């Protein structure tokens, strides 16, 4: 099974588990007492329209939200947009929502042609770059979070014309 973002995977597993529990009358759904009873402190709710746009040149737009350990980003890439070579400590999971792009990964510069519905996992510290073949929308999930984005030190994006 493909490794999917921890938040998405957890959500899916909870739904599947709840469904399985509901079908098995011999299974207790009581939360074990040894688990902490966490409140909602730190919980964020927003929508895509509630997230600010970061513009890099006239072809790359980014929106993102960050938790303590994971980050979700929504990229809108105009045809011909290029995201330069970069690397980071985060594992990256990318999902192409629409369009088509080339993602070049690693020191051997392996090219992956990604289209709508494709998902790719890039391990931490692996160099990569991207190029939109047509107008493209893609979602990236990062863990750990991209502190360079939060601090505004993502120079590889800042330098896009």
TrEMBL record:
Cupin type-2 domain: residues covered: 74-132
Matches recorded under CDD domains: cupin_KdgF
Q: What is the protein's name according to its record? A: Cupin type-2 domain-containing protein
Provide the organism lineage as a comma list: Bacteria, Pseudomonadati, Pseudomonadota, Gammaproteobacteria, Alteromonadales
Q: Which stretch is the leader sequence?
A: 1-22
Is the keyword Signal assigned to this protein? yes
One Pfam family from the record: Cupin_2
Q: Supply the alphabetized keyword list.
A: Signal
């Amino acid at each position: 099974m493909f490794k999917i973002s921890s938040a998405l995977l957890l959500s899916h597993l909870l739904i599947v588990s709840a469904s399985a529990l509901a079908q098995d009358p011999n299974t207790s759904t009581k939360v074990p007492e040894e688990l902490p009873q966490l409140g909602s402190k730190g919980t964020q709710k927003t929508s895509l329209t509630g997230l600010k746009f970061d513009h890099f040149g006239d072809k790359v737009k980014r929106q993102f939200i960050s938790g303590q350990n994971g980050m979700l980003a929504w990229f809108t890439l105009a045809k011909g947009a290029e995201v330069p070579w970069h690397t980071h400590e985060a594992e990256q999971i990318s999902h192409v929502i629409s369009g088509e792009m080339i993602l070049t990964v690693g020191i051997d510069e392996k090219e992956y042609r990604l289209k709508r519905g494709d998902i790719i996992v890039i391990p931490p510290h692996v160099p990569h770059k991207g190029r939109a073949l047509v107008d493209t929308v893609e979602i990236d999930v990062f863990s750990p979070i991209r502190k360079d984005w939060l601090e505004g030190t993502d120079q590889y994006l800042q330098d896009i014309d």
